């Protein structure tokens, strides 16, 4: 294959450059739709869980415990909120971009996907650290 | 007469989009590899838990049925995580190759994996929502039953 990258590393906008074609478009469209649906449902789940846990903490915990539980809930809510927001935005922006051929929204969609992946990676790393702590603290994961 | 393809939009992968996708692909590969390792560990953990090889069940006083159910639960989670991680890894790997070699076929394969990943995530989220709603309903019915 002949080189299609210029000196600065950018792909040349030629006939051979990467583009959205008839096989890419449906895949991207379905990914966007699924992401949007999953994001909206995840937001609903998050709302139910938040209501449930905050109700439980106010009903059964003492004043000191309430504060710490609500702090943890707020942190979890913020992190999951960013993930869910980016999932929904990715889906929304991609769908509009593909329908209206909007390059700017296409870029925003890819940016949302990037942020979603990065936050997901941070969560995975934190979860791994938590698992390691559990192993060293209790001797096993269960 | 000017003819325009209405099915396939004329969107291009310019330098900023390529940068976003390159970074996304990198993180997706990391997530994929980590997920694959985790899924194998979770599945092994599930097998150990349901069999008599692990000590965890006896430590917490679970009976055989509970141990089996928890073990199967771990195995199911491990299998789901394995496939989701595989799709993510394929997305990242193919995206990297597509951007490096300007390969449309790899790009198509990459976006197909992204579609499969998001489709699976959507289905799992729906199932999770149904389970939560059912659990709330069962809890509510039980609570009301006890109060009367």
Terminal CA distance of chain B: 77 Å
pLDDT < 50 runs, ≥5 residues of chain A? 1-14
What's the mean pLDDT score of chain A? 81
Largest sheet of chain B: none
> Sheet bearing the most strands of chain A, described?
none
Please write the string of helix (H) and strand (E) elements of chain B. Answer: HHHH
Based on CA atoms alone, the radius of gyration of chain B comes out at: 22 Å
C-alpha geometry of chain A? elongated
Describe the fold and architecture.
The complex is a heterodimer of chains A (142) and B (148). Chain A is mainly α. Chain A has 3 helices and no strands. Chain A has helices spanning 24-60, 63-100, 103-138. The model of chain A is unreliable at 1-14 (pLDDT under 50). Chain B is elongated, with a radius of gyration of 22 Å. Chain B starts with 14 loop residues before the first helix and ends with a helix. The relative contact order of chain B is 0.11. In chain B, helix 1 packs antiparallel against helix 3 (64-101) and helix 3 (64-101) runs antiparallel to helix 4. Chain B has 148 residues and is mainly alpha-helical. Chain B has helices spanning 15-50, 56-60, 64-101, 104-147. Chain B contains 4 helices and no strands. Chains A and B meet through helix 1, helix 2 and helix 3 of A and helix 1, helix 3 and helix 4 of B.
């Amino acid at each position: 294959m002949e080189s299609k990258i210029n000196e600065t590393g950018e792909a040349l906008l030629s006939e051979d450059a990467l583009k959205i074609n008839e096989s890419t478009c449906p895949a991207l469209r379905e990914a966007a739709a699924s992401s949007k649906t999953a994001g909206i449902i995840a937001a609903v789940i998050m709302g139910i869980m938040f209501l449930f846990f905050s109700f439980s903490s106010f009903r059964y915990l003492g004043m000191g415990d309430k504060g710490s539980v609500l702090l943890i809930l707020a942190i979890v809510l913020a992190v999951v909120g960013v993930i869910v927001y980016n999932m929904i935005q990715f889906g929304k922006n991609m769908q509009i971009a593909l329908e209206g051929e909007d390059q700017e929204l296409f870029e925003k969609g890819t940016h949302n996907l990037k942020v979603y992946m990065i936050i997901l990676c941070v969560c995975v790393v934190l979860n791994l650290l938590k698992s390691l702590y559990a192993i060293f603290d209790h001797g096993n994961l269960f | 007469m000017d003819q325009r393809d209405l099915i396939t939009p004329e969107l291009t992968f310019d330098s900023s989009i390529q940068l976003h996708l390159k970074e996304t692909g990198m993180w997706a590969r990391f997530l994929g590899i980590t997920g694959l390792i985790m899924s194998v560990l979770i599945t092994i953990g599930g097998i150990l838990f349901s069999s008599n090889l692990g000590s965890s069940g006896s430590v917490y006083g679970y009976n055989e049925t509970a141990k089996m159910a928890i073990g199967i639960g771990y195995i199911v989670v491990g299998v789901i995580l394995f496939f989701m991680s595989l799709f993510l890894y394929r997305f990242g790997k193919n995206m990297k190759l597509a951007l490096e070699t300007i390969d449309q076929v790899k790009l198509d394969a990459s976006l197909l994996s992204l579609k499969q990943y998001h489709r699976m995530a959507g289905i799992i989220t729906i199932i999770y929502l149904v389970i939560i709603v059912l659990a709330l309903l069962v809890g509510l019915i039980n609570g009301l039953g006890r109060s009367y």
